[in-house]
Amino acid sequence: MGLYDVPSVSVAVRQDGTEPWAHAYGVATSGAADTVSPRSIFQACSISKHVAAFGALRLVDQGVLDLDEDIEKYLTSWRLPESDDWRVVVTVRQLLAHTAGLSYNWFRGFSRGDATPTSTEVLRGQRPATSPPVRATMLPGSGFRYSGSHYAVLEQVMEDVTGSEFAELMRSLVLEPLGMADSSYDQDFPRRYGQVAHGHYLDGTPLPGGWRVQPELAGAGLWTTPSDLTRVGAEVAHAVAGRSALLSRDLATEMITPQVPGGFGLGTSVGDDGRLRFGHTGGNAGYGCWLFTWPATATSMAVMVNNDMANEVLLAVLAAAEHHYGGGGSAPHRAPVDVTGTYRVRDDYIVKITGEGDELTLHVPGQAPLGLRALPNGRYRAIALDCELAFAPRDGEVVLQVRQQDMTLTATRQP
Predict the structure, then answer these.
(1) φ and ψ of 275, to 5 deg
(2) CA distances from 107 to 92, 142, 151, 315 (A)
(3) Co-location of 85 and 166 in the same domain
(4) Cα(260)–Cα(320) distance, rounded to whole angstroms?
(5) More confident: 240 or 335
(6) Are 233 and 293 spatial neighbours (Cβ–Cβ below 8 Å)?
(7) Distance of alpha carbon 369 from alpha carbon 107, whole angstroms
(8) Residues 98, 145: contact at Cβ < 8 Å?
(9) How high is the pLDDT of residue 182?
(10) DSSP label at 290?
(11) 2 in any annotated domain
(12) For the domain that residue 381 is a member of, what is the CATH number?
C-alpha cells in the first residue's frame, strides 16, 4: 500500500454457510486520520455489471425478458440507430456477454456538482454526456468486445420493460433480497451513508470532492463493500448448485458459461484451468476492485481499493487468493517435461530454471531468485509478481513463455 500510494484496502472472504471474514486497512483519505472499516463503501466500478447481470437474469427467470429476444421488443425511450436503412438486431444475451458489437465506451464519471446526463442522453451522446453515441460498429454475435455501451443499453432495456428507475429496480431485484444493506446504485448514497473511502489518483492525491459521480449505473455506478459483494458471488454459486431461491440453476449455469471463446459469460469473467473461478474486476477514476468465487472451495472473495492504478496490489492479493482458495484440495499438475535449464530471451537477458518437480525457482539477471508455485496444466506463477510461466515442447526443444501483465516473453532452452 505504501509503495503504490494506496490509502485503503478492504477485503472480505465468505465461505459457504458462514458470515464473511472482513478487514479494512488504512485511511479513507490520504493524509487524514479517518480510518476505514469493513463497512466503508467504495465504488464497485465494473463489478456493477456483474451485479446488474444478476438482476437482468432474475427478470429473465420471471419471464419479463428473454435472453435471445431482439431488444427492440423492450425499448420504448430510445432505439439503436439505423445505418443506411439497415437496422441491427441485438439480443439481451449479447448485451450481457459483450458480443453485441456496440461502440466502445469507458465512462469516466463527473465531478460532484456538475450536471450529469440521463440514461438516454448517454445513449445518444448528448451533453452533458461526455461519451460518444452508442451504435453498432461490429457484427452482433461475431465476437467479444468489452464496452460500457452494452450495459448502458441493458440499463435502458431494464428500465423500459419494468417502468422502474434502475437504482430502485436493482434494490428490489438484488440488493434487498441478498441483504446488501451497505450497497446502492443511487449516486446520492455516499452522502447519506457517510462512511466513504475517498478515491485517489495514481500518486495518492485525493480526487476533488472525494469521488466522481457515475450516472451510467449498470456499467459503473454501484457503491458497496467487499462483504456485500461476496453475497452476490455466493448466491450465484448456490444457484449453479440448484440451491438459490433467487435464480434458477439453468440461468446461473448460463451466467458462468463462456458465450464465445475468450472466457466471458453473462456479465461474468470465467476462468477454468481445471479449477473454476468466476466473477469480475473493475476500475473507475479513483478506485479498483475484484470479486471472484471458487466453487470448488465454496469461497467468494472481494477486494476494494481507493487508488485507480493499484493493479499490483490487487493482483498480489488475487495470487494469494488463488493459492488459498483455488485449489479445491487437488494436487497441482506438473510440467509435461523436465523444464530446468538455461533459457535465452535475448543475448543480454538469459534466465535459468532450477529445482525439481513442483519446487522450481526462477533466476533472472540482477535479481534475487524467485520461487515458483505450480498451477494447473504445467504452468507456474511467480507469486511476488504478476508473472506466469508456461512450458511447451516444440520440435524437440522446450519453449518458455513468461507472461507479465500485457506482455509475453518467449525463450528457448539452450543446449
Answers:
(1) -135, 95
(2) 21, 24, 11, 23
(3) yes
(4) 29
(5) 240
(6) yes
(7) 41
(8) yes
(9) 98
(10) E
(11) no
(12) 2.40.128
Q: Is residue 331 part of a domain?
A: no
User: For residue 25, is it within any domain?
Assistant: yes
Q: What is the pLDDT of residue 337?
A: 66
C-alpha of 244 from chain center: 23
Task: Note whether residue 372 is domain-resident.
Answer: yes
CATH code, 197:
3.40.710.10
**Total tally of structural domains belonging to the chain:** 2
Q: What is the pLDDT of residues 368-414, one digit of tens each?
A: 898 888 876 678 888 667 788 888 777 778 888 888 766 778 888 99
Whether the predicted pLDDT of 295 surpasses 70: yes
The residue written with cell numbers 449516486 in the block is 187
C-alpha distances in Å from residue 214, one per residue of 45, 71, 116, 188, 271: 9, 24, 8, 10, 28
Supply φ then ψ for residue 402, to 5 degrees.
-115, 110
Q: Cell digits for 43?
A: 465504488
pLDDT at 307 over 90: yes
pTM: 0.82
Q: How far apart (Å, rounded) are the C-alpha atoms in residues 63 and 156?
A: 17
- pLDDT score at 105: 85
CA 111 to chain centre: 24
Mean pLDDT (the chain) is: 91
| Domain with 104 in it | 8-325
32 Cβ neighbours under 8 A, 6+ residues apart: none
Q: Say if residue 140 is preceded by a cis peptide, omega within 30 of 0.
A: no
Q: Which three cell numbers stand for residue 261?
A: 471463446
Together in a domain, 132 and 15: yes
End position of a domain, from candidates 275, 301, 325: 325
Collapse the DSSP code of 366 into the 3-class scheme (helix H, G, I; strand E, B; otherwise coil) and give the result.
Answer: coil
207-257: pLDDT as tens digits: 999 999 999 999 999 999 999 999 999 999 999 999 999 999 999 999 999
CB 124 within 8 A of CB 133: yes
The pLDDT tens digits for 141-164 are: 999 999 999 999 999 999 999 999
DSSP 262: T
C-alpha dihedral, 88 to 94 to 97 to 100, nearest 10°: -10
CA 198 to each of CA 6, 161, 191, 212, 415: distance values in angstroms, whole numbers, following the listed order: 11, 35, 12, 10, 55
Beta carbons of 318 and 290 less than 8 angstroms apart: yes
